[in-house]
Design goal:
By secondary structure, the chain is of the alpha+beta class. It has one domain: RelE-like (YaeB-like fold), CATH 3.30.2310. About 35% of the residues lie in helices and about 25% in strands. The chain has three helices and six strands; from the N terminus they run E-E-H-H-E-E-E-E-H.
Length: about 130
């Protein structure tokens, strides 16, 4: 069984995105991080899950087109909000430049569309 939930808070549930093959690139990237980086990331997931927002743009930022970035330096986790009080983590990467790489945002947008169409058709959470 796929483990979708990264953190379940009082306000929001943070979930990993899984593709049609049942793989989560974001979760795989998270698993490669050091324990310290994992803790930094999970603290951001906990903060948004418990409070529904993170005001500090150095930690969480709206990247436009309904895509948001968790920013546990130097890593990034792209995400989007979804009805039912969810935030879906689409992809993760190590930040190497000042600007958000276009391909990472494009990947997040593509996965957001995939998630929405698969949830709407009722095949995303099937086992």
């Amino acid at each position: 069984m796929k483990e979708f939930i990264a953190y379940e808070g009082d306000t929001l549930t943070v979930e990993w995105f899984f593709n049609e093959k049942g793989e989560s690139e974001a979760l795989k990237f998270f698993e490669t991080l050091s324990d310290a980086q994992k803790r930094k990331t999970l603290m951001l997931f906990k903060r948004i899950g418990d409070f529904g927002r993170i005001s500090d743009i150095t930690k969480f930022r709206n990247e436009g087109e309904k895509i948001f970035a968790f920013k546990p330096q130097p890593d990034r986790f792209m995400s989007f909000f979804y009805t039912g009080k969810k935030i879906i983590i689409t992809n993760g990467f190590r930040k190497k430049t000042q600007k958000l790489p276009k391909k990472e945002k494009a990947l997040a947008l593509k996965r957001m569309k995939s998630y929405m169409s698969r949830v709407t058709s009722g095949c995303y959470y099937e086992e």
